[in-house]
Design a protein that fits this description.
The chain is α+β, with helices and mostly antiparallel strands. It has a seven-stranded antiparallel β-sheet.
Length: 143
Amino acid sequence: MNYDEVANEVFLKDGSLRDIYILDTDIQIWAIIFEYLESNEINYRVTIDGLITRIRDIAELLRIKKEASIGITIEYSEIDICGYFYEGSVIEFDISPLQIDSEKKINILMNFLKSLSRKLNKTIIITPEMTTEEVLVPKGKLN
């Protein structure tokens, strides 16, 4: 795909978010994500009801999640990748297409996701908001 195809098919500025799914996961993958971000000096913040926390213990965050909203924002090269902590077999992040406004940012995002996929040894896909059925960037493109 060239820039115009990716911009128009994947990051069309239609007012909705795009979902980034890491497939076939468990809660331990979060610890590897934290390790990856820290070892690569990638800025991120974890919040509890909107307030920044230093808690990184996954079991503790999931315990707190029963009573509060737990979020994460990864700040990577002027791109914010946002997610919430869920127990399940899929980890989901959101990204706004408004942030992906150049070929350079597409490359930055795709390279980040490829690197993360390799580190986790997990498949990552990009879909329209709230669906895993319509895959915009399929398996194989991000591993």
